[in-house]
């Protein structure tokens, strides 16, 4: 037997299935021309973060917009860093934002799809079959270097300003014979399996990253680890095998992996795989003190996806915002297609930011306000009650106690051509609806300060005499205008501006007094609609109360 074969048998006596058999088991997918296969491949080592959600969103969008497949693969080769229910948290984290994989891991212990298992810890035999083949070809070898030995070469490389790693003369076991390996293994020595890299630092590799464009780097010449001491694969090797066998077309991932691409391309080559296309996403940035920095789990609450749930940003709004971050032409598209489904937008990986999209709260809130303004009163009611059930018990009770009343509150200035944009997230709702509920309203009146208390009391006293709960929207304002004129206020602000000395104020000031009396606020949605929802008795009661307040102040 040739010595490479002998080595392969020594290292993998139980591996009998061949790479060819796996190739057959996981054949190329039959998809339309141009269909893209993407994956989200997190390690179950912590909570889903905004950057992860953003990547998954882009991966899903890339697949969806081409009629392809998006799957979820769990990269659990580092058992030490795994957290309890890590997979469940990822699946839920994604599904909370409506990102459901077409294939792959769908719950803590369920998978679907023909290219599985989609959990790396269940694929050890597959990786080993490929490493066995590389060993047979003289492209992999067992390395028995101890931690101490690795530290010694690291120190030497540092002091001589050489590149770190196991290569060339530092690769002590590169040419180990099967007999020597057997002797060491029989003696209980531990080993990893390394690539016998065919690369040379003088050569350059070129590739075109879908987002970043042309990239050129030195070829890999390190004998990187393929299998760790426990026989499980490294990230690099599992990436090559999995993305090949799962027939991924586009590996979309964080750009911290860019520097590893030469290793990955070499692994694809030695294994005989067609290389995937890479699209490396730049981290999301924040502006700070005139500069930019990466969004940080430590400093920025919005870096945790739980933030969006707790604040009550609806899924649709988060999608809108993620798409705005992903493709800068999305905003114009949205303006031109106000009510279109987000999936009608032609998402493009190429248009993702090379430098890193900028997270901006004001923008998030604007996008969300816009989105919420397109919802019907029923949709708002359902979403707010859902949110409040977990996050605001008092509000939940009020909304649930009188569904019809709550819906009439949410219907104010909604469903028309120019709906109001007051609500950015469901946590704004308690304040937004406060004056509709005696339990929430502090009854304070924020009167403007350009009229005297006596003048305001007079306006309210007079308004009580003309207030007609049955007036239509068209009738209401002219009534206020006439009353204003009777009291010596200009009928329009324009008229007032022309001859300010002729008037006590204008109709806007008069309406403002009524508004403050009825709602406590200077700014509200349409006052007529508000009064219709409150009902005649309540409106009169509030006006009386406001008159009392003004009189005690006087
Ligand atoms: N498990 C890797 C990580 O969480 C995945 C990177 C990739 O998408 O290939 O960083």
3D structure, described in words:
With 554 residues, this protein is an alpha/beta fold. Among the domains are: 167 residues, Rossmann fold (3-Layer(aba) Sandwich), CATH 3.40.50.620; 60 residues, no CATH class; 101 residues, Arc Repressor Mutant, subunit A (Orthogonal Bundle), CATH 1.10.10. The chain is built from 23 helices and 14 strands. The strands form 5 sheets. It has a 4-stranded mixed beta sheet with strand order 1-2-3-4. It has a 3-stranded antiparallel beta sheet with strand order 5-6-9. The chain has a 3-stranded mixed beta sheet with strand order 13-12-14, covered by helices on one side. Helix 1 runs parallel beside helix 7, helix 8 crosses helix 9 and helix 14 crosses helix 15. The longest helix is centred in the last third of the chain and has 18 residues. The protein is elongated. The mean pLDDT is 96. The chain binds glutamic acid. The site of glutamic acid has 6 residues, from loops.
List the helices and strands and how they pair.
Elements: H1 3-11, H2 19-25, E1 37-40, H3 50-64, E2 69-72, H4 86-95, E3 103-107, E4 110-112, H5 124-136, E5 140-143, H6 147-159, H7 178-186, E6 192-195, E7 204-209, E8 213-218, E9 225-227, H8 235-245, E10 250-254, H9 261-271, E11 277-281, E12 285-288, E13 291-294, H10 306-311, H11 315-326, H12 330-336, E14 358-359, H13 361-373, H14 377-391, H15 393-401, H16 403-410, H17 429-433, H18 453-466, H19 473-486, H20 493-498, H21 507-519, H22 527-534, H23 536-553
Parallel strand pairs: 1-2, 2-3, 10-11, 12-14
Antiparallel strand pairs: 3-4, 5-6, 6-9, 7-8, 12-13
The structure holds glutamic acid.
